[in-house]
Design goal:
Two copies of one chain form a homodimer. Chain A is an alpha/beta fold. Chain A contains 15 helices and 13 strands. Chain A has helices spanning about 40-50, 75-80, 85-95, 115-130, 140-145, 155-175, 235-240, 255-270, 290-305, 305-320, 340-345, 355-365, 380-390, 405-420, 435-440, and strands at about 10-15, 55-60, 100-110, 130-135, 185, 190-195, 205, 210, 225-230, 245, 280-285, 370-375, 395-400. The interface between A and B is large, with 81 and 81 residues.
Chain lengths: ~450, ~450
């Protein structure tokens, strides 16, 4: 086993009552109903900040899942990522309750416009002093498309083409519009900025036409830290080129290792460093003082999980309507076009013998179907994290919870001291930008990153 | 003089270094450079909140002014509403630093999409417990259009047509999608919401096509309080129909009274109450312990004002490039199409003899060219506010400052106690929704408002 680097710890959130493992809001101790309250979020931010957690990540969805039973009803009834407030607003509201915690948030290149997007994220980066990351997604949900005026979602290839152009516009605005010494702030001459150093971008492309200049002056990071999670070949190519933090999962540590290597190889191939990308994988932990207590708590989680809600979530992401299958069928046929392939692929292409629908259903409601799930004592959780990190060459974990806020609080109180003691975790204690914390090479994107090509000097 | 009702007090802000009276960031005591710091905003919110101020309003601009000298350079050099951060993010970041202060923010129906817009404002309304207002604008800036992929700005009539449809979609989402008793939060049955009470909106119009349902559950106010400022005939018609708070100005109290009456008449004509709309007018105050000290402070403000910056702002809003005129010309010809008519109109159509360009230039750099400007002792300011309110039948004032944060702090410390003592001001001391504070008739829009038509019951 190789020596493990200190791990990046990233907490997972969604701005709604639902969460990753569907139905857990119904656990007797869950407080997710408080998602509409500011105090819920500021308490969360300040707890994670005090613990030295590195970042808090928000997933996002822009519509309702309606594949399962060909209806939105199971998702509405089960609060399956619905309702969902705007996570960007929630993050802004947490900035004052945190000093060192960074925030990552999902935003879609398919439904956003780059000009207001760049302003929104630059504003967050200014107010947080560089603690902002953007999880780039291209979105897969038909109802989302129809909420934004489209008849149906864009084809997969077109979504990525648009994403490439979206990033180019954002780089032009945030990296190329204002030179570093453009702001003079000369009160005597009444000159705030030198117009010769603030440039229009005059972007005219296939999807976007943006004149500029950027309406915001440069923030500490300029471009936010870029997160990505694409698992398709096109997604990996995109991540290798643009991403600084990538979410990668696998059915088991060996499969995960293969996915991690594939990504690092792709980054190296195009001239970025093998470790210019931080790879993080999902983790769920049920923690007990003894193994028996942990198992008991896991049973209570299973009791709270909702099959209907979980099948609705699976249908929304994969395009497979499980209500149309028998338990001994397999999901070999193609789902509806343009869905996220990664969800279905976990149960089909990764395995030699595809799981039956009955097996898939069982897995979907047995704790977390997607993340590495650990049930045990704090020392067991720490052991497992160390083991997985060593096998897989990952840089960190995205921690999910079943019972809010119990699980994060328990992890912070019981597991993090062990990780720190073993040198597997270095708490965020000093204020700095997120990029500096991740790579220790400054606040801005490195010269090897494609954004650097859009910088202007003198 | 009629007896004056307690006044609504609304503070004016912009999320940048520049501000209404251009150049004042260069005043030796101005701290506007701090606009990028979270602490600047939280201090501001908590100071106004402690004073019992009713609301803090953010203007917004989505590009750079480039009419004056046919160039963006004067606006960039002078920080004329540029750079400008995202005010929605700034407001979200202030929520935790305030309890009773409400927030109003400008957002454009020309450049936003109604679905994410509704989610953003519903999230703000949830987290603030109903303290949010939306200032509806249709935007007038050619550079903004070109930042959003359009060749040029939309014609005035089309902008209003789109605004009407935008509001209809927002009403359908926020008033009509989730019934009041849709949320069950039944942990035993694992049912969060009753799907039979959460409706798609299936809007298919000329500008927007939105399926729904709304992704947010109802917030306290559902629809945010609606602000508006249109001064054209079409703008007044729009305001009379939709707005709850309207910004109205005039060259003098008599002119203002005529504009106020015109608006109230229009509201009454379509079945809303004469006082269902709160009318507020702009106010700038230079306050001194003596008249002489106030005059001295006013001179220091004039010294900080920047003619080039002010002409750039005037050009951006009116379409008139003052660099092309001689001082004895008048602005009788039409400016570039589709600009905000109100800016130029202040200097042309409202007066029997139009001002000469030389006179306009002088006025533009003599304290605030647009707002009622008062220079004097605290008692004088209070007298003037009382007098203007009585003559004009307005409901309140939007307070501007020249020197940040000195002017607001002085107004709070010196003028507000006098207003309160005279019964002209009731501080916001108890938490409640903004709509309830304004009208004392509940949190939701009244049945006489057009939004009520989109509600669904049972």
């Amino acid at each position: 086993m190789t020596k493990t680097r200190p791990l990046l710890l990233n907490a997972f959130e969604m701005a709604g009552v639902g969460y990753y493992a569907q139905g857990c809001w119904s656990h007797p101790e869950s407080m997710r109903i408080r998602y509409k309250d500011l105090s819920y979020w500021t308490e969360r931010a300040s707890m994670l900040d005090a613990a030295g957690f590195h970042s808090l990540f928000f997933a996002d969805v822009l519509g309702v899942y309606d594949v399962y039973r060909n209806s939105p009803d199971p998702a509405i009834a089960g609060a399956v990522d619905f309702p969902l407030n705007d996570p960007v607003i929630v993050i802004a509201a947490m900035l004052g309750a945190s000093q060192n915690l960074s925030f990552a948030v999902t935003a879609s290149t398919t439904y956003e416009q780059p000009f207001p997007f760049a302003r929104r994220f630059a504003t967050l980066d200014h107010l947080s002093k560089g603690r902002i990351a953007w999880n780039v997604v291209t979105s897969y949900l038909p109802n989302a498309a129809r909420n934004y005026g489209l008849k149906d979602q864009m084809p997969h290839a077109e979504r990525y083409e648009r994403a490439e152009e979206f990033l180019e516009v954002v780089y032009k605005l945030l990296e190329g519009s204002w030179e570093d010494d453009a702001v003079l702030y000369d009160k005597v001459a009444k000159v705030y900025a030198d117009p010769a150093k603030v440039h229009r971008i005059d972007h005219a492309g296939k999807y976007f036409s943006v004149q500029g200049p950027s309406i915001t002056e440069p923030s500490i990071q300029r471009t936010p830290v870029i997160f990505q999670a694409g698992a398709s070949a096109r997604g990996i190519e995109f991540a290798a080129r643009h991403a600084e933090v990538v979410f990668v999962n696998g059915m088991n540590p060996e499969g995960l290792r293969a996915n991690v290597d594939r990504l690092r190889d792709a980054a190296e191939k195009i001239g970025r460093g093998r470790y210019d990308i931080k790879v993080v994988t999902d983790l769920s932990a049920v923690i007990g003082a003894s193994q028996a207590e942990a198992e008991q708590k896991a049973d209570a989680v299973r009791a709270a999980q909702s099959p209907e809600a979980q099948y609705a979530a699976f249908g929304g992401a994969s395009g497979y309507d499980l209500s149309k299958y028998h338990d001994d069928d397999t999901l070999t046929s193609e789902p509806a076009k343009n869905f996220s392939r990664s969800e279905g692929a976990r149960f089909t292409s990764e395995k030699k013998r595809p799981d039956s629908v009955g097996e898939i259903k069982k897995r979907l409601i047995n704790l977390s179907p997607y993340a590495s799930t650990m049930v045990g004592t704090p020392a067991h959780i720490a052991d497992e994290m160390e083991r997985i990190a060593a096998i897989t060459d990952i840089d960190g974990f995205t921690l999910h919870e079943f019972v809010t806020p119990h699980d994060f609080e328990t992890f912070v109180a019981e597991v993090m001291p062990i990780l720190e003691q073993r040198g597997l975790f270095e708490p965020a204690r000093k204020p700095m930008s997120f990029r500096q914390r991740l790579f220790d090479k400054g606040d801005r994107l490195p010269e090897t990153h494609p954004a650097a090509a859009f910088r202007r000097h003198g």
